[in-house]
């Protein structure tokens, strides 16, 4: 085992360890468990520059980074980051973390929970609602209009309801909580819910 360059089997093993999200210094430490910190840094620097390591990493990635399309590079970078975050959470006892390290763990946990729930990269609820409207996925009911009169156009609404009492109709079979008014949600004129 050389401090200056891994052989092909060591490069393959190191690539697998790095690919799982382990930081380079920690990964190289598996090959030099008795090395002091300065020696370990020197070995890590040399091994990370190895052409054999690059070849092994490219094999795991399926393509060289420079040959990836933008979409492939983004997807690979995101997956790599998820693995690194998962390793960080796995390798650290949460109760022992303080300050910046605990903040990093909290952020990693939130990101990974969103990923596991299928919400990674999604926007907030209101943005998704507007996107659904824009894309035509959600159709807002249009108020019925009566014939124009001398005072303007009248809209039909149930007897005894004030304009501010109108509730939006249910979207995606998820009705708004009782008592929700249009002012509580957004300023869009819709027909009152049949539940009113």
| Biggest pleated-sheet summary | none
Multimeric organization: single chain
Question: Spans of 5+ residues with little confidence (pLDDT < 50)?
Answer: 165-174, 187-191
Summed up, the domain count is 2
Estimate the global geometry from the Cα principal axes.
Answer: elongated
Mean pLDDT: 77
What portion of residues belong to β-strands? under 5%
Radius of gyration: 29 Å
Q: Helix and strand string, N-terminal first?
A: HHHHHHHH
Total number of helices: 8
Helix content: 40-55%
Structural overview:
The protein has 196 residues and is an all-alpha fold. It has 2 domains: 8-116, no CATH class; 141-196, no CATH class. The protein contains 8 helices and no strands. The termini are far apart.
Provide a quick synopsis of the model:
The protein is mainly alpha-helical and 196 residues long. Helix content is 49%, strand content 0%.
Short descriptors:
mainly alpha, elongated, 196 residues, single chain
């Amino acid at each position: 085992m050389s401090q200056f360059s891994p052989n092909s089997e060591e490069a393959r093993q190191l690539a697998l360890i790095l690919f799982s999200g382990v930081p380079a210094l920690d990964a190289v430490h598996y090959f030099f468990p008795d090395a002091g910190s300065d020696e370990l840094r020197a070995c890590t620097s040399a091994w990370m520059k190895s052409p054999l390591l690059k070849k092994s990493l490219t094999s795991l990635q399926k393509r060289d980074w420079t040959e990836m399309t933008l979409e492939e590079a983004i997807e690979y970078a995101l997956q790599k980051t998820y693995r690194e975050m998962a390793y960080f959470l796995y390798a650290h006892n949460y109760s022992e973390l303080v300050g910046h390290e605990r903040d990093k763990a909290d952020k990693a946990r939130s990101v990974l929970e969103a990923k596991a729930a299928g919400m990674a990269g999604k926007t907030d609820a209101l943005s998704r609602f507007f996107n659904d409207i824009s894309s035509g996925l959600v159709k807002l009911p249009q108020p019925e209009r009566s014939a124009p009169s001398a005072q303007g156009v009248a809209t039909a609404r149930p007897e005894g309801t004030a304009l501010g009492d109108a509730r939006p109709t249910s979207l995606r079979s998820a009705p708004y909580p009782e008592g929700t008014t249009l002012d509580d949600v957004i300023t869009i004129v819709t027909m009152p819910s049949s539940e009113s």
